[in-house]
User: Fold TerC family protein from Winogradskyella ouciana.
Amino acid sequence: MLDFLLTSDAIIALLTLTFLEIILGIDNIVFISIAANKLPEEQRSKATNIGLVLAMAQRIILLFFVSFLIGLSEPFYIHESSWLSISISWQAIILFAGGLFLIYKSTKEIREKVETPAHDEKAVKSKVIKSLNQAITQILIIDFIFSVDSILTAVGMTNGLHPNHNYTLVLMIIAVMISIAVMIGFANPIRKFIDRNPSMQVLGLAFLILIGFMLITEAAHLSHTEFFGNSVGAIPKGYLYFAIAFSLFVEFLNFKTVKKKT
Assistant:
């Protein structure tokens, strides 16, 4: 396993996935801060840290569950006709549904951030919190909602890296642990940076659309889908890593240019 974790593909996947987990966790940090700020001053840091640690445990449990479903690769339904040939498995269904979800959720989030950026924050602020337990419960509920796209992103970034699903599961768990640790240590600075540069979060959501499309093509490829005799191929993950790295480089140049002008 160590040999796999030290390969260039695994390291690039880990760095990219950790970055995306942090970017996707920004909203989570904002909502956790709102929930914690309703408590007395001496309980706010405790609620935030406990909430994030429990959120990490929650995501790892979800990773085990999703990875189990991904491992069900044997087809249970085969259809062949003159124009379509497909072998459907639970693995393909999870990837296909996950891809559609990521595309829908990301498009919806981008639209809401452009039109009503404070909508979700107002919804969280309207809920009454009277105790530490209530705050932690609300934090866990909030994190569960955000965990879905986070887990699907992890699956999309690591699926197919190694034939042994346990190896990729370990890689996903490491990325989640690193991202949560970073969020615990730098929650406020990260949140302030994103507030100053909201394009970074929009960029992260745009990456999710790419990952969602990749999951759909991956599902079609694993189902041995053929349209009119033409098979659907998988998108090499190297293309995705390059697109993400290039976009971040352009955003970095834009950030430096704007900073110099101001």
Notes: The chain has one domain: 2-261. The first helix runs from residue 2 to 5. Residues 2-261 form one domain.
